[in-house]
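Researcher: Next entry in the queue.
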Amino acid sequence: EELYGADFKAISDKIGNLSKIFFVDDGEIAALVLKLRGTLKAELDPLADEFAEAAIVLSKITNLPLEEISAKLVKALKDGKLTVAEIQGLGIELTKEQQKAFDEAQKAGKGLEYLLSIILSEENIKKAQRLTTPWEKLSFTVGQLKEKAVEPLLRAFEKLFDFFTDEDENGMVKVNDNFLIMRDLLLVIGGALVAAKIIIPILKWTKA
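Model: Structure for this entry, 208 residues:
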């Protein structure tokens, strides 16, 4: 929360939404937003989450790893502007009309904002969603399920560990009486189950 400041809630919600829309891990998106915030000039800092979304869209459209596109974008944005070569390096081909509008926006100091509007057009966002592969969707879903399942299991294990262990006067962790009682109980139950497997068939046989 301290890393995002007063914008934490809005940025957190945006990251969560992007994660669901494009099937990308929210931790990866958050790391990219932070990297962009450390790269962009102060006046462009509020656009970090939008540039992160642009990186995801370009990654899907160009079929290049998000890490590769992100690295190119971060490098290109260090001076606060983009050259034609850098734009092409990101997989963006501007039409003559778009190039003219971009040049005018650059002169007005709004080149990056214009470029974002091109990348994050409704057409490109829908295309990026269509190009998300079934494998990407499956991997993302499995990862989400693991996170939801593992955390409760870890909490349960911690409670179980605390219940069965104590620290001695030297700070050493050792099993306590609860563990010994449970062990003896399981031995009794186990013995009873084994005995039942033997006795029940014998009783059935004697009644036959």
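Model: The chain has a mean pLDDT of 78.
Researcher: Noted, moving on.
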